[in-house]
Amino acid sequence: MLEQIINWFPEWARPFIMPMLTIAIVLQVNLGVCSYLILLERKLSAWMQDRIGPNRVGPWGLLQPLADMLKLLMKEDVIPGHVNKFLYVLAPGISVFTTMLAFAVVPFGPVPSNLSATDGQFPYIIAPGIDLGMVFIFAVGSLAVYGIILGGWASNNKYSALGAMRASAQVVSYEIPLGMSVIGLALLTGSMSIEKILLHQANAGIWGWNIWFQPLACVIFFAAAMAEAQRLPFDLSECEQELVGGWHTEYSGMKWALFFLGEYTHVITISFLTSILFFGGWHFPGIAESDSNYLGSTLVKMLVLMTKSFAFIVVIQMLRWTIPRFRFDQLMGLAWKVLIPLATLNVVCVMIVKQFHLNVWWLLPMSALLCLGAGLIGTQAKRPFLRRATPPVDKPHGHHAPAHAH
Amino acid sequence: MPIDANEVEWVEEPAMNFWESSYLPAVLDGLLTTGQHVANFAPITEYYPEQKPTLPTHYRGVHRLNRDDKGRVKCVACMMCATACPAHCIDIVAQDAPKDDPLWADRDKFPKSFVIDELKCIYCGMCEEACPVDSIELTSIFDLTGMTRKEMLFDKEKLLSVFDQTKDSGKDPVRTHKGKIGHASDFTELHTLGPATSVRGDDRAAKSVSAGVIE
């Protein structure tokens, strides 16, 4: 049926129809899902803190997102007099644009293998067949920080600038473990394409999910991706206690909502990526195997992927209301002293396995060993670089000794 | 001045063990705590407008003027409450009780007008404590609103109607001497009393005019 509709269009327009349709669907679903994720987050935090949460608009507060959206749309669009107007208006757009763009290469269902732009098959991905999918995501995802930096700088406000600077340092640091953690996957699969990594796992069954071979990489990826998305416990760039609102202090109304939308799209992308890269994507033993071809199997596969992603979104939201924020030096220490060395060693492990044609299951004890080694270094090392005030040495004459003798 | 080194107590940060330094058990422990709150969801929130709170009996809300057993206003217009009021929100104009009316035979004075500014009031309950005849009392009504400031000036009739509304509600029982006027009305003659303490000549309070005037 879709093919006939596509054929109705002139020749030159046909390749654009399905992508446009997909983009429209993804965009609309994403908007709706984001607003309801915000409601879920508010409800979840309320439940955790023995509160009730939004419950006034509609049954159980289910229409709250509509009320919020209406409020944000109707609000006065304030542009403070002291800002750089062009960049100030541009920043939220960049933030949303880049995070949406990153979603282009993330499959949200079983991507058909013999896909062509004009045969009317729904592609389940906006940009099918990109072999550098992962590189694209990280490239575009790190562009998102431009929205933050420009927004913070254009606001012409100390808090915003501080938040933006923190964000830039943080994103630069966490880019590295993020990329490093998935290099192992690319080596194992032999491809940078997210679709191919997914298919590789689906063909291998549940014991072929990458989580069994790369558990450490999964933890590193998840932590680094949360830092990329500026989610708690890594939201130093907007920590309310120190920086008022961080980089979006001067933003209100719909512009602020765009930043929020960007952040939530980022969270959704992370969750999809984690479930695709490490947890087999749409594969689930019994109901959604790679060769299952029953009626509605496509829908089931999509639902499996969505469920997995939803689980990760809930975990991210629960983590937000569970763990306190990192201090900035802890944040940097975590990236540079823990995650980057571990991710690098993890890649080395994968290289060893591939080079000497070992069984991939060797990677599981290797990851455990790396974890153990890191823990032992953390507890047993003398920590020569630890900057900590030390008690003064006992003086024979106890007169006014400076309190901070080193 | 710097703190003397001897007075500084140095506390050594305890070393982290293997699992602590990996952060993961702490994260899982935290997730367990928050997850248990979600699982055993037991909020103590009251759905306020639908569900009214049960207030303690000593809650201090809107005032009322009590009636005695004959239905007259109990207030004897002594100005004690107006004097005690720290917010100066009580305004009383007293009047001599009608001498020829048998209903008022046992009374000397009653308030001609009695106005409380409920917006100025700080609901401290001092008027209630000062009242010698237990006439003014604070009820547990807390959700009073008005469209104008003038509406929030509660006069004698309004305060008496508050009494009529609340006396049998169970929440605001007339606390003492129901129907009787109170100890002070039992005196048949009053002894002249000097001040309990000596008053200095420049004491402004001693020189001030009394809080009310009998018309």
What structural category arises from helix and sheet content of chain B?
Answer: alpha+beta
**Low-confidence region ranges of chain A:** none
What is the terminal-to-terminal distance of chain A?
Answer: 79 Å
Mass-distribution shape of chain B: elongated
Percent of residues in helices of chain B: 10-25%
Radius of gyration of chain A: 24 Å
Cα separation of the termini of chain B: 68 Å
- Which regions of chain B have little confidence, pLDDT < 50, spanning 5+ residues? 211-215
Indicate how many domains the architecture of chain A comprises: 1
Which shape of chain A, going by the Cα principal axes? globular
Gyration radius of chain B (Cα, Å) is: 29 Å
Question: Could you explain the architecture of this structure?
Answer:
The complex is a heterodimer of chains A (406) and B (215). Chain A contains 13 helices and no strands. Chain A is mostly helical and 406 residues long. Chain A has one domain. Chain B has 215 residues and is α+β, with helices and mostly antiparallel strands. Chain B contains 6 helices and 5 strands. Chain B has helices at 18-21, 24-39, 80-84, 126-130, 156-166, 204-207, and strands spanning 63-65, 90-96, 109-117, 136-138, 153-154. Chain A binds chain B through residues 44, 47-52, 219, 318-319, 321-323, 371, 374-376, 378-379, 388, 391-392, 395, 398, 400-403, 405, and chain B through 2-6, 8, 10, 13, 15-19, 21-22, 24, 27, 30-31, 33-35, 37-38, 41-45, 47.
List keywords for this structure.
heterodimer, A: 406 residues, mainly alpha, 13 helices, 61% helix, globular, B: 215 residues, alpha+beta, two-stranded antiparallel sheet, 6 helices, elongated, disordered C terminus
